[in-house]
Amino acid sequence: QVQLVESGGGLVQAAGSLRLSCAASGGTFSAYSMGWFRQASGTAREFVATISRKGLNTYYADSVKGRFTISRDNAKNTVWLQMNNLKPEDTAVYYCAAEYGTTSRSPGEYDYWGQGTQVTVSS
Fold it and tell me: Fewer beta carbons under 10 A from the terminal one: N or C of the chain?
């Protein structure tokens, strides 16, 4: 069992920045591709970003490309999501997820999930 714990969410004004962290335990972190997803109230969970096992490849949803950056440090068992130029439409619960193997944009491909952290962007 892999445990994932997100942190760093909060309330921020539009155009501001937040950095989310996800700390992993209970598994071999470097064996997992990592992803960030978000779910706004009343909507389906959507893909935000993913990073490959060694951190050599990253992929982003079009809605966040150029504003968000995913990164990881396998020595620290941690993945981050740096969010810049935040918009009200970024408001959602953000989830960290781990996929044993290669990257995916599909929530169904991920094996483990964190509890989520709320990000609220005010206009």
Answer: N
9 Cβ neighbours under 8 A, 6+ residues apart:
18, 20, 94, 117, 118, 119
Altogether, the residues listed in the chain come to a count of 123
The pLDDT score that the predictor gives to residue 1 is 85
pLDDT tens for 27-39 read: 999 999 999 999 9
Give the count of beta carbons closer than 10 Å to the beta carbon of residue 98: 22
User: What does DSSP say about strands 46-51 and 18-25: parallel, antiparallel, or unpaired?
Assistant: unpaired
Q: What letter does residue 90 receive in the DSSP assignment?
A: G
Beta strands in the chain (DSSP E): 3-7, 10-13, 18-25, 32-39, 46-51, 58-60, 68-73, 78-83, 92-100, 112-113, 117-122
User: What is the distance between the alpha carbons of residues 99 and 91, in angstroms, rounded to a whole number?
Assistant: 24
Mean of per-residue pLDDT scores for the chain: 97
